[in-house]
From TrEMBL:
Catalytic activity: Ni(2+)(out) + ATP + H2O = Ni(2+)(in) + ADP + phosphate + H(+)
GO molecular function: ABC-type nickel transporter activity; ATP binding; ATP hydrolysis activity
Primary location group: membrane
Taxonomic source organism: Lachnotalea glycerini
InterPro entries on file: AAA+_ATPase, ABC_Ni/Peptide_Import, ABC_transporter-like_ATP-bd, ABC_transporter-like_CS, P-loop_NTPase
Cell membrane recorded as keyword: yes
Membrane topology, from the record: Peripheral membrane protein
Record's protein name: Nickel import system ATP-binding protein NikD
Protein family per UniProt: Belongs to the ABC transporter superfamily.
């Protein structure tokens, strides 16, 4: 891994203990660069989320996971050592999940959770953290950010919880952000603003982003590089211009035609 890269996966295989006979992820290799957005796209069930969960060390004990190389922000991951994953998850990587409702703690206010998140990564006072939190929420289209800070998760809609999760993930200033369909639950104007935020964060803080989606419009808008996944394998990759204008594989062409 060179110092421009924040994620390097070589030959990742995942086989779910409880699932079908075939591999959910079948020899995937990909790289995410600093300050760039790398999209992982493909139809539902092709294995995108499974790749993300494997990188985060979040697959179950009964699942078989192996790789030739997995490197995150200059940390070589040899096996699923719990402590190593905790360190990496806490310090280097943030993930925004497809379903936000499971990710917030129902017992604490939104403000509490954002402030805690900031203070576990940056040495700032509670007041400074509060101000950072309010500013970030405003950037994510919460006009009444001060009121939102006092709310419990159950008082917010799914889309609002998702934006809170995005605030927490961004404020952790991770080297690598993994965003799994982060805007699917949101309406179009909010979605556009959030994509802009993720884009700016990646440029301003040199954060590498692995952006999982099946929305090619979104990919065209923000991605620098693209990996096309099909049946557990990467079938084509390249920069966004190459993929959209000069696709090689039949599957990629079909995928592109389906949105035109
Ligand atoms: N916990 C699990 N146990 C068994 N099989 C699973 C499990 N999670 C996912 N799978 C299977 O693994 C394959 C890949 O699933 P995955 O969730 O990674 O797809 P995806 O590309 O993220 O799809 P989507 O776009 O719908 O989110 C699917 O066939 C799915 O049914
Ligand atoms: Ni998924």
């Amino acid at each position: 891994m060179n110092d421009k890269e924040v994620l390097k996966i070589e030959n990742l295989f995942v086989h779910f203990g409880t699932g079908s006979k075939k591999e959910a992820v079948n020899g995937v290799s990909l790289t995410v660069q600093k300050g760039k957005i790398t999209a992982l796209i493909g139809e539902s069930g092709c294995g995108k989320t499974t790749v993300a969960l494997a990188v985060m060390g979040l697959l179950g004990k009964q699942d078989e996971v192996k790789w030739s190389k997995l490197e995150i922000c200059q940390n070589m991951i040899q096996n699923m050592s719990f402590r190593k994953w905790q360190f990496i998850r806490g310090n280097k990587v943030s993930m925004i999940f497809q379903d936000p409702l499971d990710s917030l703690d129902p017992l604490f206010t939104v403000g509490n959770q954002i402030i805690e998140g900031i203070r576990s990564h940056q040495k700032v006072s509670k007041k400074q953290a509060y101000n950072l939190a309010v500013k970030q929420l405003k950037n994510l289209q919460f006009e009444d950010a001060e009121r939102i800070m006092k709310c419990y998760p159950f008082e917010l809609s799914g889309g609002m919880c998702q934006r809170v999760m995005i605030a927490i993930a961004i404020l952790a200033r991770p080297g690598l952000l993994i965003a799994d369909e982060p805007t699917t639950a949101l309406d179009v104007t909010v979605q556009a603003e959030i994509l802009k935020q993720i884009y700016q964060m990646s440029r301003n803080y040199n954060m590498g982003v692995l952006f999982i989606t099946h929305d090619l419009g979104v990919v065209a808008e923000i991605a620098d590089n693209v990996y096309i996944m099909h049946n557990g394998k990467i079938i084509e990759d390249g920069n966004v211009e190459k993929i959209f204008n000069h696709p090689v594989q039949k599957y990629t062409k079909a995928l592109l035609e389906s949105i035109l």
